[in-house]
Amino acid sequence: MPEEETLLDFQDALLELLSSGQPELAILETLRTDVRFDKYKDYIKDFDPDMVAVACELMGKWAKFKDENDE
Length: 71
Known about the structure:
The chain is mostly helical. The protein has helices at 3-18, 24-33, 41-44, 49-62.
């Protein structure tokens, strides 16, 4: 898989996790253990739980996902 596509897949999965409603510690655990994120382990290990909590809050307040029927 080309590098750009791998990064896009990581970003999509990260956004999905941040908008999932899961607690930040559960999200961090998924990021640290899911093989989909292996390539980004060094980046993820620096994630702070407070940073993840803020990102989740922002996703809940500001992010809008396009419904498949809206296309």
